[in-house]
Amino acid sequence: MSASLLLPLLAGLYLGAPQSAPQPPPLGPAPLVITELPYTIGEPGRYILTADLEGVAGQDGLSVAADDVLIDLGGFKLTGVLGSGAGILAVGERRNITVLRGTVERWGADGVGFGTADESRVAELTVLNNGGHGIQLGDGCAATDCRVQLNHGGRGLLAGREARISSVSANGNEYGGIEVGFGGTVFQCLSVGNLSTHGISTGGKSLVRNSTARGNHGAGIEVGGGSLVIECGTFENIDHGLRVGGDSMVAGCESKGSVDGHGLLVARASFISNCTFEDNRHLGLRAGPEVVVTNCEVTGNRRGGIVVVGPARLFDNRLDSDLLIEGGGIVDGNYLAGGARLLAHKVPALIVRNRAGSLEASPGSLVGPILAPLAQGADEGETGPWVNRVPAE
After folding, report:
1. Are the beta carbons of 162 and 184 closer than 8 angstroms?
2. Which residue among 27, 67, 127, 268 is least packed, with the fewest CB closer than 10 Å?
């Protein structure tokens, strides 16, 4: 898909009405009180805790063997012991299980193991120091206002397709922070210091918005093709700050201080606008063909500013290091400070209204007149609107 068709398509997805989250079962008879572990839930209904409970070696804590179940921990703790199983586990293929308000800690497997429980929901949970994933969810699930921390056998939160994750913080988990499948949504989440892999990761056609990834051992945020990354921040991650599949949009983001990667690595036919890429170890931005990059600030990156491998359109960006386009396209209105070079190699390009330390264009390129900087008080119109100023003022 061409970048010119991408923006309205993705904007429509972004502005569309959000899908409703899975709903807890309706209120019915008085809830059943869980007084000891292990405990198996075999009937739909509401279940509550009235005290902290401790697990037993060789057993899961709560086993859910029914659909349409609500478990309200009531602010209490489910605590595992050495050799215990999962804290709360869906047994077999289940749907519509809700767990609310409490702590699940120190279990030998997943804290909450709902990988086979589609259309389920967790909210207001603290899940930490478990031996598997902190929280594992199936397809069409939701997680809200949860904290997943220091889980040492998996990800902080792992969810299936079309999951909706909001206001979740993932800190110090062994195999990554937050991961959702195809068509997922991650909103107002925080992922810090997770090991082995990415801070936030999604499948294709997903939305990540208003989220932050800092100090993770993989990329800060990684999304599959056809996705939107809106108003996010990535800081001091080991790999790339942002790693984005093709046919995507990245808007209003900042990516700073990647230890051994680019600020943004993006595949073909994507739209990048109003972003800041600063102080990254490699490039500020590296892109595949047919991208549009506009109104971005690209400064302080150790190995260069922007490199595009293939045709592209670059408008009104500000850089303090080189801009290289290999494959032709349009380079219009960019400002390259500090002697940075504008390089259009391999295929002719249209190059107008830029300021740069120097300019190199492939034979056959259409290049606006190359003139020295304007004298103080001179009128730009005297020399025409397409002039490239080299060197930049």
Report:
1. yes
2. 27
